[in-house]
UniProtKB/TrEMBL annotation:
Residues 278-370 form the Stonustoxin-like helical domain. The keyword Phosphoprotein does not apply. Keywords: Membrane, Transmembrane, Transmembrane helix. The chain crosses the membrane at residues 605-628. Residues 388-507 form the SNTX thioredoxin-like domain. Residues 11-162 form the SNTX MACPF/CDC-like domain. This is SNTX thioredoxin-like domain-containing protein. The keyword Flavoprotein does not apply.
Length: 708
């Protein structure tokens, strides 16, 4: 409710004067009207001198720190945040927020007062209003009865931190430097007796200035700040004519004539603190995201910046909306007959149930920090050995293709971004479509790809193979090869790394790392092929040697990820001469297929006869196949089992033929066959001399390795 006493309020740069009406419900000045004529106000004004000067060092940068430095009380904090107050002069300091955590900030406050003006008590007596009708309009709740004049100034110093500097140490050193400003000798120009270390320290120091003084140019360096600080007392003028209102005293209007009290409800300090904390949390998250967006590694992986930029934009928009809501609700709640603070509490509850919940935002940002750290470690692993000559580039695909200085460019491309950023999508829908997040529980359980050990293992394996490949090929080709790490994009979100070869400006469809082993087989059982790996020597540039080793090398292609043991049933023609395949497999396969055909035929004929006969035939056929099971060790279970077995056998037969044909086509289409540690290639003109039987055998061995 409205107070029975006078209220002190800081002006925040607003043009107060004695006799002005003020509405505390909206914290607004009622300009252009007064309850008394100007002459009467002048005759009833008392002026007292009140000279004082003080300075203070402000170490924090939170809104609470700024509010305390400006003298803002709790009731005025929400009005300032809600945009009800258009601050000016030194009060603009409240809107200056630190935009990075990679800097330390200290603020020097200069404050001075000159005089105090007030209205006499006789002038405020009942029945002495010159314009009482203004009082009846319910335009205002208070009238200005006292004003303190003076001026304030804030020097905001930001010191950028280098990677090897401690924030606490720099903060302490900066505080020592700022403490020197008021103590410099008062002799003409400011004399700065600084050591070389202090001068180097000040090189990365920036200064911003907010004041009630009128200046043609604000200081931007430490030296300029010292010079201006010494000039501030003279800036008020000889008769303090440049002083501005700093603080006012407000007198309740209902005490002037005894009429009904204007209701002015105060918002509880608990609710005020909660709203301020929410806005501060959002600002802190924006600063972290902005710092992450400026990370040097993202200059090469620009697609990773976009989610962070969208995150900052969504938070900016929400902050504006929240402040607008506060600005609209405050006058209503302060002037309401009943306590309606619950409306502001509802705003906080909605935020807690929305995608803008603090815990969800922090988790998303923490994961992005982990992703950037992981990306940095990947890049450092690739580039720490300068002899490998691996470069990290942000060039587009067209720029890479246009590089005519290197015939062959090998790109290790990473795709680190997720195609679907569910949190950002939910934030957008909440803001613009008034939709809450869908399947929120399921999304919370989704882990990012970089928390999957298997995927990280695959990336590490690619990195190591790329480094080995670069080490073997960077020096023997007289610089014709170039090795690049860049950012890529492809539809398969499960694949996070890919090696792409650009040769003479064109992208090759397939590139597979060469292997360092040749495989030999020995029979483990009649239906298994065991592959032993052994070292295989490097090919040379000699064409004859390439041709001589071609038949061996073609079998080695694309073997690094194969399993050592495999089982497969195949037709006898394709398996002749292949080590590890027993002839009994083929015989058993043929007999097995014939039995399945007979069983399925019996079952089909039975289905055409009456139902009772069907069951009789079914059980007879089942009995027959059970006998076969005991004597031939076939795992059949009735005619139904026969159909299943036959279908599966037919499928496996067809699948083998398909895979064999596809493998042969791949070998014919792919012209490049890479050796162990060389990028020398076997072209299509060499491949024509390969023995067709060896090619066929390579296809069969490859098929055997695919199975099992």
């Amino acid at each position: 409710m409205a107070s029975e006493k006078q209220v002190e309020v800081v002006t925040l740069g607003r043009p107060f004067h004695l006799g002005m009406l003020y509405d505390m419900r909206s914290d607004s000045l009622i300009t252009g009207v007064t309850l008394w004529n100007p002459k009467k106000l002048e005759n009833n004004t008392k002026i007292n001198k009140q000279p004082s000067t003080d300075y203070e060092i402000i170490t924090g940068d939170s809104f609470e720190n700024k509010a305390h430095a400006l003298g803002i009380e709790a009731s005025l904090k929400l009005s300032l945040l809600g945009g009800l107050i258009n601050s000016a002069g030194s009060a603009k300091y409240a809107d200056d927020h630190q935009k990075t955590n990679h800097a330390t900030r200290l603020t020097l406050k200069y404050s001075t007062t000159t005089h105090f003006e007030q209205l006499t008590m006789d002038h405020l007596g009942k029945g002495k209003l010159d314009y009482p009708d203004l009082h009846d309009r319910n335009l205002a709740t208070h009238v200005v009865t006292g004003v303190v004049y003076g001026a304030e100034a804030f020097f905001v110093f930001d010191r950028t931190l280098s990677t090897n500097e401690s924030k606490n140490e720099i903060h302490g050193a900066l505080k020592v430097m700022i403490n020197k400003i008021p103590k410099f000798q008062n002799e003409g120009e400011a004399k700065l007796d600084l050591t070389d270390n202090e001068k180097r320290f000040l090189d990365n120091l920036n200064c911003k200035f907010y004041s009630d003084f009128s200046l043609s140019e604000n200081p931007s360096t430490f030296e300029e700040a010292v010079k201006l600080y010494r000039q501030l007392p003279s800036r008020l003028g000889q008769n303090n004519e440049n002083a501005v209102p700093k603080k006012v005293w407000l007198y309740p209007l209902h005490l002037l004539d005894g009429k009904d009290m204007r209701i002015v409800r105060q918002i509880s300090s608990n609710l005020t603190d909660q709203l301020i904390a929410v806005l501060e949390d959002y600002h802190s998250l924006k600063v972290k995201a902005s710092d992450l967006r400026r990370n040097m590694i993202l200059t090469h992986f620009s697609d990773m910046k976009k989610p962070l930029s969208d995150f900052v934009d969504r938070l900016d928009e929400l902050q504006r909306d929240l402040k607008e809501q506060i600005g609209k609700l405050l006058p209503q709640l302060r002037g309401a007959v009943s306590n309606e603070e619950s409306k502001l509490f509802d705003v906080l509850k909605q935020l807690d149930l929305s995608p803008f919940k603090k815990q969800d935002l922090e988790l998303w940002l923490k994961r992005k920090e982990n992703l950037v750290a992981l990306t940095t470690s990947f890049v450092e692993s690739l580039t720490k050995d300068r002899d490998l000559n691996i470069t990290v580039e942000s060039s587009s695909r067209s720029n890479i293709i246009a590089d005519m200085t290197h015939p062959r460019i090998f790109c290790l491309s990473f795709r680190f971004n997720d195609e679907n950023e569910y949190l950002l999508e939910d934030m957008y829908n909440y803001r613009y479509k008034n939709q809450t997040s869908k399947s929120e529980e399921n999304r919370q359980n989704l882990k990012p790809w970089f928390e999957d050990g298997q995927i990280k293992g695959q990336i590490h394996a690619h990195i190591e193979r790329f480094k080995e490949f670069a080490a073997a090929n960077s020096t023997i080709t007289n610089g014709s090869n170039k090795f690049v790490v860049n950012e890529g994009y492809w539809r398969d979100s499960n694949k996070r790394v890919k090696v792409i070869l650009y040769e003479n400006g064109s992208e090759k469809e397939i590139f597979i790392f060469p292997v360092k082993a040749a495989c030999g087989g020995n029979i483990c059982s009649k239906c298994k092929l065991c592959i032993d790996w052994s070292y295989y020597g490097n090919l040379t540039n000699d064409l004859e040697q390439l041709r001589n080793r071609q038949s061996d090398n073609i079998v080695n292609k694309n073997r690094w990820h194969r399993h050592p043991n495999a089982t497969c049933i195949a037709d006898v023609d394709d398996l002749v001469g292949v080590v590890g395949v027993h002839t009994a497999d083929v015989v058993e396969f043929i007999f097995y297929s014939i039995i399945c055909i007979i069983g399925s035929t019996v079952l089909c004929i039975s289905a055409l006869i009456f139902l009772p006969i069907f069951f009789i035939v079914y059980f007879i056929s089942t009995f027959i196949f059970l006998l076969l099971h005991f004597f031939r060790n076939f795992h059949f279970r009735g005619a139904g089992g026969a159909i299943y077995r036959y279908t599966r056998a037919f499928y496996r037969w067809q699948r083998f033929n398909y895979l064999k044909g596809r493998q042969l086509r791949d070998l014919e289409r792919q012209e490049l066959i890479y050796d162990v540690s060389s990028d020398d290639r076997l072209g299509a003109d060499h491949a024509v001399n390969i023995d067709p039987n060896l090619v066929n055998r390579a296809a069969i061995v490859d098929h055997l390795c695919r199975c099992g």
